[in-house]
Amino acid sequence: MLENHPVEKLDKMQAEKELIRLNEILDRANSDYYSNDAPNLSDAEYDTLKKRNLDIESRFPNLKLKNSVSDKIGSKPSSTFKKIKHTVKMLSLANGFDEQDIIDFDQRVKKILGFEDRVISYVAEPKIDGLSLSLKYIDGKLFQATTRGDGEVGENVT
Questions:
Q1: Which CATH number fits domain 2-71: 2.70.98.90, 1.10.287.610, 3.40.50.720, 3.90.1150.10?
Q2: 127 is catalytic
Q3: For 71-120, what is each residue's pLDDT tens digit?
């Protein structure tokens, strides 16, 4: 089975099959988690599969699927709630799996901010599962709470 095959040892045909398999699993997991409130994978399992997908896409960029889960954030909003278009696209942070991922993150932040020669302090906290929300206040009072949804359109949960 390919899921136990190291990414660096996959040939092109194996990589293509594995990307299709991972996309199906992760797409279903996104739908179950975000739309059906019934996750079928633990966060750790999901993160491991998504990292494998990204690693294969990185090694074989020409095989990246047009509908790749690596390009998606969240899932389509539920039909239960009113849909709200985000004023600014609501993104998600990538996971850091090792020290190099953290070093790379720090370098990207410094480059974006133009602080290459400065030390930046960070605060890291354990991940708590829950909703990502965009909250709008008017005169200090909550006006609207919107879930991330697919990053462009979320659900009004005010």
A1: 1.10.287.610
A2: yes
A3: 877 666 667 789 999 999 888 777 787 899 899 999 999 999 999 999 99
